[in-house]
Amino acid sequence: MNIIIDKPRKEDVRGIQDVFFKTWLSTYPNREVGITLGDIEEKFKNRHSENSIQKRILEIESNFENRIFLVAKDSEKVIGLCKAIINDDFNQLEAIYVLPDYQRHGTGKMFWARCLEFFNNKKEIIIHVADYNKQAINFYEKLGFVYSGKRFSDEKYKMPISGKIIPEIEMIMKIKKVN
């Protein structure tokens, strides 16, 4: 594997859409919460529609100083993505998604290194993660994140069939105070 991290191009959009779909499919269905494979399939059924493709192209072509969108590629295949933003009061890691077959090969850490270069080092970093996504929670804990005690149920993660919402927790990385 020769993984390269870079900004996405227009021709990467279908691969980006597939990374979202495949990682959600392998991560978010959960019997206890009531989220099904059908929910995820329904949520992403239009991922290759002209409208969805155009929205994603607009997102990756937008130049905002406070946002970063990166892809990981193995040759020309998009195998992961990362999104982050600098808000007024904190940095937020919005997503790191890596295809299941490419996980545990350092891609997430490569994304993290790029985020650290991007983030404002005077602000804390937060991430919201599904409370049952133990693999992601362990990954973020190894990076230095801790559970903040905050829980969320964001309507944007309401599933189309079951109506269930992915329950999230907030994890935070405090800034290192320099004397």
Question: In words, what does this structure look like?
Answer:
- With 179 residues, this protein is of the alpha+beta class.
- The protein has a single domain, classed as Aminopeptidase, CATH 3.40.630.30.
- 31% of the residues lie in helices and 27% in strands.
- The chain has a seven-stranded mixed sheet, sandwiched between helices.
- The mean pLDDT is 95.
Short précis:
The protein is an alpha+beta fold. The chain has a single domain (about 5-175), classed as Aminopeptidase (3-Layer(aba) Sandwich). It has five helices and seven strands.
CATH class: Alpha Beta
What is the annotated CATH architecture? 3-Layer(aba) Sandwich
Which regions contain 5 or more consecutive residues with pLDDT less than 50?
none
**Binned strand content:** 25-35%
Number of individual domains: 1
Summarize the topology.
Blueprint: E1 3-6, H1 13-27, H2 37-43, H3 50-61, E2 67-74, E3 77-86, E4 91-98, H4 107-118, E5 125-130, H5 134-143, E6 146-152, E7 168-173
Parallel strand pairs: 4-5
Antiparallel strand pairs: 1-2, 2-3, 3-4, 5-7, 6-7
